[in-house]
Design goal:
The protein is of the alpha/beta class. It has 20 helices and 19 strands.
């Protein structure tokens, strides 16, 4: 579909891409990977037509549609959530308006026998067929499905977009892109503003309903679940692997090992040949062999080992001064904005040295509770900060607060005090801002580089309670791994607000879930929490099926303790029997859904064959039938996705 040919990009003498060529095919799901500053976002902008390369070109068919979601965008706030989402179907509204104008013209004219009047009737007929074909009847349902999948409630639909945070407004833009169903989706860090449940919904959508996808993401679990091809950008070149990220990591290492072995073997062969030539160069009896070996060396195609980017982050938090045994004790803490309850009666204790995660949908109070702990906003209840607790706080928007007009060095120089000022160059070098990079202006830094710079400021003073609000946004895989290890090695207490499952895995021993006005404590790691949460969700669905009229007001907002599900726990015979029954039912539902999808695809293919003939193209009923079948196929694909998720979860329980 899209052909990138001989693409080169240079900035101020530095080469970002050097003669890159590859093709994006229909149904490709491509992950662009590489370190921060390698050019991933630039590549997306060039494909989207927003930036011109230094040389080379991007070729695509004229009728190909491309949707692009950047990391940051300027949003307008003049509509409600529903009205903004409806902009994805502007073409439908334009078509309906054109039909309305033509119908008015038909009603007003009286020259019924004229050729012009007959032509107008033909145009109205064709426009109505086109309207049926694009599915005008069900766009409202598509909007609702997508907005709810991304975390909005029906109550949100009529609210002005200005009432929402930047993260939620980015979700609206993402919803509009998904609803447009472009031939190629370009997504730059789409998970940065999504909670865990919305990420899982987006994974399902991209895997089952999207066309070609090219994405940049540092959420390893997300790209593993979505992509089937990985393109690595490194030192101006690309390496194209037809596999997902986890498999790519293995294959990349194997490729480098094979190159090294081939290089070493060839070097030994060259040395032996050169030694033979040198030894017998002046012996007449060996002149034929010597000349033959010289020719062999001249013709030999030299093996090269790919240059590996060995720069890496050296990150270590300063030793934590000893604090009291309980850095944070919360008793009945609550926060409301007017009539809107964020959370109430939050009661918990965080011990010295614990590493915990705050998770939940956006807007449920994670960052709000952090602000309460920081003393930035008033709250009800009691919140005690322990003896000698020194807090280091990394805010979600920390990177965007940097002064863009000054250099990297000046950014740190302005906040450093005492002996630290003599070590600024060393600190910047440890964060991959060595040499000329320290003299770069902040405005030219990538999102990940800005996050690293903001992280340096956090390390200038020793603290014993780290509060990190979405610290991995914009960080590449290797930098995230380094940050994760640094937090593991940190001997103080840590609170991490994050939606990145891979980052939290093996890092935290306790999870606080925010939702429905409550703060629930789950013992165990992030995947223990996700397993228990899915079980809770299924149980709640079953309860609603039995008694649909549950009174939400009867639930008292309170902190609950939910122990992680033990891997070694055994099901009773009755439970095993019930699980087997549910597995059989889920397998049948998946099989039925697959059969329905296959049947509908066959019907649509047959119908499209008829529409390609002159007789079929003139039959308006076929267009209406085609529109109905496409809607049925969308619904069937949705049911298949839902059934597959349920089956996958039950299969995990059965292991």
């Amino acid at each position: 579909m899209i052909s990138i040919e001989g693409l080169s990009v240079a900035f101020g003498g530095n080469t970002l891409f050097d003669n890159i060529t590859y093709v994006i095919n229909k149904r490709d799901r491509i992950a662009l990977v590489g370190k921060n500053g390698a050019g991933k976002s630039t590549m997306l902008k060039i494909i989207a037509g927003l930036q011109a390369p230094t040389s080379g070109c991007v070729n695509m068919p004229k009728d190909l549609t491309v949707g692009y979601l950047p990391q940051q965008m300027n949003l307008t706030d003049t509509r409600t959530v529903m009205e903004e989402a409806e902009q994805a179907f502007a073409h439908i509204f334009e078509l309906q308006a054109r039909i309305e104008r033509m119908n008015i013209e038909l009603a007003e004219r009286t020259d019924y026998e004229s050729a012009d009047y007959q032509e107008l009737i033909e145009r109205v007929s064709n426009a109505n067929e086109q309207l049926a074909l694009v599915g005008a009847a069900n766009y409202q349902a598509e909007i609702e499905k997508t907005l709810i999948g991304l975390g909005f409630t029906r109550d949100d639909f009529a609210r002005d977009t200005s009432e929402f945070s930047g993260g939620w407004r980015m979700r609206i833009e993402l919803a509009k892109l998904l609803l447009q169903r472009p031939d190629v989706l370009l997504l730059d860090e789409p998970t940065n503003h999504l909670d865990i449940e919305s990420i899982q919904w987006l994974e399902s959508f991209l895997a089952t309903r999207a066309n070609a996808v090219v994405l940049v993401s540092h959420d390893r679990a997300f790209i593993d679940n979505v992509t089937n091809r990985t393109i690595e950008i490194s030192l101006g070149r690309i390496y194209d692997y037809q596999v997902n990220y986890s498999r790519y990591v293995v294959l990349r290492q194997e490729r480098l090992e094979q190159q090294r072995r081939a290089y070493e073997n060839q070097q030994k062969q060259i040395q032996d040949t050169e030694a033979f030539i040198e030894r017998f160069r002046y012996k007449a009896t060996k002149s034929v062999q010597v000349q033959s070996r010289i020719k062999q060396l001249a013709k030999l195609e030299r093996v090269e080992v790919d240059e590996v980017d060995t720069s890496h982050l050296n990150l270590k938090f300063p030793p934590a001064p000893r604090s009291g045994d309980y850095p944070i004790i919360a008793e009945g803490v609550g926060k409301s904005y007017g009539d809107h309850l964020v959370f109430a009666d939050a009661t918990f204790t965080i011990k010295r040295g614990e590493k915990v995660a705050f998770v939940g949908k956006n807007g449920e109070g994670k960052s709000t509770l952090v602000k309460c702990i920081m003393g930035e906003i008033p709250y009800t209840g009691t919140l005690k900060i322990g003896h000698n607790v020194k807090i280091g706080y990394f805010a979600q928007n920390q990177a965007s607060l940097l002064d863009e007009s000054i250099t990297v060095f000046d950014t740190i120089d302005r906040v450093a005090v005492g002996d630290i000022r003599t070590k600024i160059r060393d600190i910047l070098g440890a964060f991959m801002f060595g040499g000329e990079a320290s003299d770069k202006k902040v405005k030219v830094l990538s999102g990940g580089e800005r996050t690293r710079l903001a992280m340096i400021r956090l390390l200038l003073e020793p603290v014993n309670l780290l509060i990190l609000d979405e610290p991995t946004n914009h960080l590449d895989m290797r930098t995230k791994d380094v940050l994760k290890q640094a937090i593991r090695d940190f001997n103080g207490t840590v609170i991490v607000v994050s939606h990145d499952r891979e980052f939290l895995d093996g890092l935290v021993s306790k999870v606080y879930e925010f939702g429905g006005g409550r703060v629930r404590e789950h013992l165990g790691g992030i995947y223990d929490f996700l397993e228990s949460r899915k079980l809770d969700s299924l149980r709640e669905l079953e309860q609603r099926a039995v008694s649909p009229a549950t009174d939400k007001k009867s639930v008292t907002p309170k902190v609950e303790i939910a122990s992680a599900v033990s891997e070694g726990s055994k099901l009773s015979f009755a439970e095993q029997k019930e699980l087997a029954r549910r597995l059989r039912k889920a397998e049948k539902e998946v099989a039925d859904a697959e059969a329905a999808v296959a049947d509908l695809e066959t019907q649509i293919a047959s119908l499209e064959e008829k529409l390609s003939t002159p007789e079929g193209a003139a039959d308006t009923s076929l267009y209406e039938q085609h529109g109905r079948l496409k809607k049925q196929l969308d619904d069937a694909m949705w049911r298949w996705g839902e059934a597959s998720e349920v089956l996958e979860h039950l299969q995990k329980q059965d292991k």
